[in-house]
Every structure is written in C-alpha cells, then in structure tokens.
C-alpha cells in the first residue's frame, strides 16, 4: 500500500500519526514551506460542541495516541449581546495556537510522525492518484473537494482578526452576538497569555452582508471590545480570510481517495468549529486503510452533527438583537453553566431537534 496525504494540517497529520501507529508510512505533500506556515492565531476547542466527549484533548491522547497541549484551559466564557451579558463558568474547553506559533497544534502533530513531508509541493490530485495506491485529500480547502466531487456549500464566511496587546486572563474567553457589529455572525476574544489575545470578527457572506464595509464593521467591533474590557487595546498583527467555505462533501470516500478535515466538511456551521472533526476524520480515514473501520460508516454521525449544527446556524440567523438579548440573559448563571457542563446528553443536538420546526430550509438528508 502506498499512501499519499495532500496537506500537512490537522487532518492530514492525524491520519499520518494513526497510519504510523499501524506501521504504514505515508508520504505527505505540503504546499507551503513548512508545517503551519501561516499567520499566528488562536483557536478554541469548546467542549459543548464535541459531545459525548467532554475533554477532547484527553480523548485524543487516551483513545487515539495523539498528544496535544493547549495554550490554556478555559473556565469562563463571557457572552455579550447588545444589552445583556452572560457569564458561563465550568470546564469549558481549551484554547490552542495555530500557524507559525511554535506550539501550534500542527507543529505538535508534525513532531509525532516519522513519515516524509515534501514541502512546496505542486503535486495535483491527478498526479498523486497515478503514483500512489491511496490518496488522502487534506488541503483544508473545500474548493479542492468541489473540483473532484459534489460538495454542498452552505455558506462562506469572512473573518478578520488581530493580535491585541492588553491585560487578559488566559482562562477567560469572550464572544459578541450583536448584528450591528457582526451581522448574522459573531466576534470573539481568545487570550494567548496575560498580555496578548486574538480578537476575531466572523460573518457569513450573504448578499445583504456583502454590501457592508468590512473595515467599518471591524472598527465598530474593535471599539466595542475595548469598551467592554475597559481597555485601549493595541493592535499588533492582523489577518483576513475571505470566502471560507462551510459545507459537506457528498462522498467521504470515492474509490481509493478519502476526503478529510475541511475537505470532508469538518467545520460545524453554527460557530465554525472544525478542529475536532478534522482530527477525527484523519484518524478514521487511517482506520479504514488499516482495516480497523469503515470510513463511510465512521463519518455518518459526523454528517448528522453537521446537519444539527446547520439548524442552529439557520436559527441564529433569524434572530434580531432583541431576541439575542433574551437568549444571552437566559444563559447567564446556572442555566448556562448547566448547559455547558452537561455530561449525560448532547445539548446542541437536543436544541437543534427542538428548533427544527422553527427554522426555514433547515437541513438536508444524510
Ligand atoms: C481564522 C480561523 C479561525 C478558526 N477558529 C477555529 C476555532 O476557534 N475552533 C475550531 O475548532 N476551528 C476553528 N477554525 C477551523 C479549523 O481551523 C479548521 O477546521 C481545521 O484547521 C481544518 O483542518 P484541515 O486539516 O482540514 O486543514 P488545515 O489544518 O488548514 O491544513 C491544510 C494543509 O493543507 C495545505 N495545502 C493546501 N493546499 C494544498 C495542496 N494543493 N497541496 C498540498 N498541501 C496543501 C495547507 O498549506 C495546510 O498546511 C478556524 C479557521 C480559521 C480560518
């Protein structure tokens, strides 16, 4: 068996680690100069998203032998709406670095493999298919999947972010749900340390949003973050991501080609979390190649989760600021804490079932 992995990101490297655990050594093709050769930013692994798993990092190490260290554990989340604020506490998840950061998840994973990585790769899928028995498509870009098979795009997102300097508690993250700042989207703050944090504005590219000026929205968001934190944050670096695709591929596997990570449809549309499913799909593709599992069967529950998340996104998009205020008010205190720390049921799945009748064009069949 000769396996090529296209992309040395989370899903590709998770696949490589798992293959190596089973004594298969793939060749990895990476377009960039090095692993994580991208702007530095922080991401969040929120436990409530990954139920029934409550601690995703412990799960990856204990069940799958993939060892990841976070920047910090998150014990407080402050959600702001126009007029309300919810403080949610508990074991909420982890923040982790990405890109060129020395402790970026992809860099931690690259240290766990022996397989060869070919950098600055210009290989196309067609070339790899000719030279290898199996190809794993892990380019992090669903547009690549769309060239090869049917990929149903549900939305694309614009993201603008910056590293800001100020005073932060590394265990406290914040989110803003306010259509004046982030129409049908949200903004968030993830600290790297006591002195630095990432602030990011993310909203869908619907026609009504395309008319809006990104820089005006950004200035509004940045000023709101400064006001809510009572600090004059200094901006260090910034980044923009445009037309970030969220959707699901029709076939997780076609013949000897596997679609993993964002190329599978790892990003959950509600809030855009994709790391957990990216790593899982990489592991599952390797399981199939090693004869441990069937990729299509293993990914079925992930497709269902995606659909549940799409219902939540469509519901969120229907809410004006007064409704967002009501929800945020309810989340404050024991209700929010209980919801986020529930261990025995999947709250997002439950809520998505309850909301389904109230959401227009809510989902598609898996
Ligand atoms: C700004 C931003 C913030 C995010 N925040 C969060 C968050 O807080 N929590 C969360 O869970 N998720 C978040 N996500 C989503 C998450 O980052 C992705 O779902 C996840 O990284 C996808 O993993 P992947 O393996 O598919 O792709 P990646 O990890 O992006 O890796 C893809 C790799 O393939 C390489 N590549 C691309 N094209 C080719 C090619 N033609 N040939 C060879 N190599 C190629 C790339 O250079 C890259 O190294 C965020 C995404 C962005 C953009």
TrEMBL record:
Protein name as annotated: FAD dependent dehydrogenase
Any single Pfam family the record assigns to this protein = Pyr_redox_2
What GO molecular functions are on record for this protein? Answer: oxidoreductase activity
Superkingdom of this entry's organism?
Bacteria
Extract the InterPro entries matched here. FAD/NAD-bd_sf, FAD/NAD-binding_dom
**Ranges where the FAD/NAD(P)-binding domain occurs:** 1-153
Question: Which Gene3D superfamilies does the protein's record reference?
Answer: FAD/NAD(P)-binding domain (3.50.50.60)
